[in-house]
Write a structure and sequence with these properties.
6-stranded antiparallel β-barrel, rod-shaped, mainly beta, single chain, 1 helix, 203 residues
């Protein structure tokens, strides 16, 4: 019995230490406030002036450029809010396209650009096509697809022809233009025609 007594005492001390350590850890965890997970809100985390962003293709060739007087970045949706934006599309084998507006929101790192307030996009002329001029209060640019569209009223000038209506979609790769509803068309060299149309197309 005397030989076992030191072992029993050591076991009791060990159990006491374990219990004391557990109690101390639990007490400390309850006593010290732990910050809750940070809420990801729509708050600016950076800004800049004379902003320029370039996007390149797989070979490193620039295909899109965004410039602006002032920009703010919001991390929750990875969007850039740009003042006095100038968006330039320079895809290989496609005419240069330049878009301007009062403000713009560049979403998902530039995969979608919403141009707001006096939005204006010009596609330069090439050997086969006249210059294209589009104006609306909002124009949405999808750079990777080389597409411009709006659901709002828009006025489109192509050479000496004019088309206006609510809703417009232009594909710079295929040179296809669609104007949806309530379209007025004035074709160069012909009389003015004013009539509602759906899915009006002009190459």
């Amino acid at each position: 019995m005397k030989e076992r007594l030191p072992a029993l005492i050591a076991l009791v001390i060990l159990i006491t230490l374990v219990a004391g350590t557990w109690w101390a850890a639990d007490y400390a965890q309850r006593a010290i406030p732990i910050d809750p997970p940070r809420r990801l809100t729509h708050e600016m985390d950076s800004w800049g002036r004379n902003f320029v962003m370039l996007r390149t293709d797989q070979t490193g060739r620039p295909i899109n450029r965004m410039e602006g007087d002032y920009v703010e970045h919001f991390p929750d949706d990875d969007s850039y809010h740009v003042e006095a934006p100038r968006a330039i599309g320079q895809h290989l084998d496609n005419p240069l396209t330049v878009g301007t507006a009062n403000t713009a929101v560049m979403e998902s790192g530039g995969k979608r650009i919403v141009m707001n307030g006096q939005a204006h996009v010009v596609r330069q002329a090439d050997a086969k096509n006249d210059a294209l001029d589009v104006r609306s209060e909002q124009l949405i640019i999808v750079p990777d697809e080389d597409v411009i569209y709006t659901e709002l009223p828009a006025v489109v000038l192509k050479g000496n022809s004019r088309m206006s209506g609510t809703g417009m979609h232009y594909n710079n790769k295929t040179r296809q233009l669609q104007v949806s509803a309530s379209t007025d068309v004035e074709i160069a060299g012909s009389e003015t025609r004013s009539r509602p149309r759906d899915g009006a197309n002009q190459d």
